[in-house]
Amino acid sequence: MSTRTPLSIEGVVPWPDEVAEQYRKAGYWQGTSIGSRIAGQVERRPDDEALVDGSTRLTYRQLWDKSASCAQYLLDLSIAPGDRIVLQLPNSWEFVALTLACFRTGIVPVMALPAHRRHELTHLASLSEATAIVVADTDRDTDLRRIAQQVAAEVPSIRTVLVHGELSNDATPHAPERALAAGMDTPGRFTDAEYEPTGADVACLLLSGGTTGLPKLIVRTHDDYVYNVLRCNDVTEFDSDTVYLGTLPSSHNFPLACPGILGALFAGGRTVMLPSPAPERALRTIDAEGVTVATVVPAVAQTWIEHQREHHTMTGTTLRVLQVGGSRMPDELAARVEPVLGARLQQVFGMAEGLINMTRLDDDPEVITNTQGRPVSEADEIAVVDEIGEPVPDGTPGALLTRGPYTPRGYFRAPEHNAKAFTPDGWYASGDIVVRRADGNLVVAGRDKDMINRGGEKISAEEVENFAYQIDGVEMAAAVAMPDPRLGEKLCLYLSLTEGHDVTLDDVVAIMNEAGVARFKLPERLVIVDQMPTTKVGKIDKKAMREDIRQRLAREDTAS
Ligand code: OOB
Q1: Whose alpha carbon is nearest atom 30 of ligand 1?
Q2: Residue 432: strand, helix, or coil
Q3: 210 C-alpha vs ligand 1 centroid, how far in Å?
Q4: Does position 213 have pLDDT exceeding 90, yes or no?
Q5: Ligand 1 test: best mutation among 228, 327, 435, most atoms within 8 Å of CB?
Q6: What sign does the CA torsion over 503, 509, 512, 514 have?
Q7: CA dist., res. 350 & res. 326, Å (int)
Q8: Which of 36, 107, 136, 330 is 20 to 30 A off residue 124, Cα-Cα?
């Protein structure tokens, strides 16, 4: 256990001292770092496989050595403990080695998503004052190195661009490029004893789904994140026989730590990484590697079920648990998981902000199909409240508030937003409308946050509306969720225009592309209205628009 004093990073909202003390006393926070948890497994099973990525297979010892080498490389590049680095890598062993290198040195990774582009990466780098950015060379036809340089041009704190893959031949970069690969094979100099973070140190900055403009950053400490992983490991029953399939972007809290890759490493199991959840390859991999647990969003679960039904790709019976979460899984889909895939369904209703709810593996089938589970920790506090903050009885929908040992008390450097998202006594308002049943399980019944959940990818309505307002002739803009049979929701943009103007979907898409916005945020339908529907108090009535688009789609459906 580290005896250093925790590094102080300005802008972190701590838990109140007395609450922290209580969490330590109760043993929720053990003062250990994420790395030290894995070090134990490296000692115990150095030659067992920890990670598989294509033809690369790494034992615990090999992964540990690569991450030590990578840690030293970062330090040699003058990236110091406490510094933030924006990390955007596809699912790969390098993602894991680098993330562990950060966890072992106290360098703080900002967990960007592979889909993020200039707009998001610039915001993340600037908000976190990152000293480096880590990207892959390309993503299909997009040159990510060029984007990283554009970010470096905008954000002066960026001194290094680390590249996974080929370096570019940019002769005058804003920040010098370095190859990530060069840092992976010289273990030996790095010692954990010198750097090991304390429990109170920041482990990483996760991204919030974002309801107001650009994503907020969520500070996760070693103490709270270790506890998060350990509780999830317990509930999902990870052990050294676990073979975990990671197909969702690994920087997302769900596949990273619920229990995810970190859970498998803590338990001495093996993780198999795939770059995407496309069904054919995923189902084949489950067979080939003897995968026991996989994590998906409902839209992916549906493609796996359809593919398996049609092609019977998966012939083995190793898959024990399919974790599904990130957006609401329709009950009918939930009922099909076990009959078709032969795996127990585990519904997961979680958030990067902390609280994780899960159904238990031995729950009654009715609970598994019809609910999103209950908190993983006895220390998670839950309140379901009405508009004035009064608790509602079980069985009645209300807004979900939560507090607990792995739910931080505020976003990073966002005091104004914190004043709205947290109550004065530290409850986080998740923006989800839930029903708590008498048995304690939660059913997600809706949302009171202005966000579109596109198959688990969260889009802030406000962010998209702000782009629309840059277009000449746009009088009012409202982004709302429209139902989609696959993704659950897609983004539909309503606009009202000033006289004599015409605006098309292409115009909106063009302005967002110009700004370098992640593709998943682009509106997929535009509705022009003479006048925006408003509520009695004169606010834009999004409920009416959601209903309007639902009816339009239904009419089109019957017409076709
Ligand atoms: C997960 O995390 P985030 O931070 O991307 O999004 C959190 C939000 C929740 O507040 C809720 O609105 C929605 O995503 N959500 C669900 C859900 N799981 C998440 N809504 C309905 N049903 C579910 N099962 O999405 C996340 C983080 C850790 C584990 C699992 C999911």
Answers
A1: 350
A2: strand
A3: 12
A4: no
A5: 327
A6: negative
A7: 7
A8: 36
Q: What is the mean pLDDT of residues 214-222?
A: 95
Q: Which atom of ligand 1 is nearest to the CA of 208?
A: 4
Burial class (CB in 10 A: 0-12, 13-18, 19+), 278: middle
- The residue contributing the CA closest to ligand 1 atom 21 is 328
ipTM of this complex = 1.00
The protein residue whose alpha carbon is closest to atom 3 in ligand 1 is 351
Ligand 1: residue whose CA is nearest its atom 19: 326
Q: Calculate Rg over the CA atoms of the chain.
A: 23
**How many whole angstroms from 356 Cα to the centroid of ligand 1?**
9
Quickly tell me which residue has 């493609």 as its tokens: 303
Encoded tokens for 254: 């769900």
Provide the 3-class DSSP secondary structure of residue 162.
strand
- Residue owning the nearest CA to atom 25 of ligand 1: 326
Compute, in angstroms, the gap from residue 42 CA to the centroid of ligand 1: 32
Spatial neighbors of 94 by CB under 8 A, at least 6 apart, are 164, 180, 181, 184
All structural domains of the chain, each given as residue ranges with its CATH number in brackets, are 27-220 (3.40.50.980), 277-447 (3.40.50.12780), 455-559 (3.30.300.30)
- Is cis: bond before 259, omega within 30 of 0? yes
Q: What is the pLDDT of residue 212?
A: 75
pLDDT score, position 560: 81
Lowest mean pLDDT among 364-368, 373-377, 479-483, 554-558: 554-558
CA of 351 to the centre of ligand 1 (A): 5
Atom number, ligand 1, closest to the C-alpha of residue 348? 24
Give the pLDDT confidence score for residue 186 in this predicted structure: 86
CA distance 358 to 375: 6
Whole-number Å distance between alpha carbons of 343 and 257: 21
- Dump the DSSP string for 86-97: EE---SSHHHHH
How large is the average pLDDT for residues 157-181? 96
For the record, the structure tokens of 413 come out as 């450097």
Residues 486-504 have pLDDT tens digits of: 999 999 999 999 999 999 9
How far, in Å, is the centroid of ligand 1 from the Cα of 255? 12
Question: How do residues 1-29 score in pLDDT, each as one tens digit?
Answer: 888 899 999 999 999 999 999 999 999 99
Q: What's the average model confidence in pLDDT over 89-110?
A: 98
Instruction: Calculate how far, in angstroms, residue 75's C-alpha sits from the geometric centre of ligand 1.
Output: 35
* Dihedral sign computed on CA atoms, order 350, 220, 293, 286: positive
Q: Tell the residue number behind the tokens 């997009």, with chain if given.
A: 142
Mean of the per-residue pLDDT values for the chain? 97
Kindly list the protein residues whose Cβ atom lies closer than 6 A to any atom of ligand 1: 209, 253-254, 258, 325-328, 347-352, 356, 372, 430, 432, 444, 447, 453, 458
Which residue, by CA, sits nearest to atom 14 of ligand 1?
A: 326
Spatial distance between the Cα atoms of 523 and 549, rounded to a whole number of angstroms:
13
Nearest CA to ligand 1 atom 5: 209
Q: Are 74 and 91 in contact (CB under 8 A)?
A: no
Q: Whose CA is nearest to atom 8 of ligand 1?
A: 351
For ligand 1, what atom is nearest to the CA of residue 298?
24
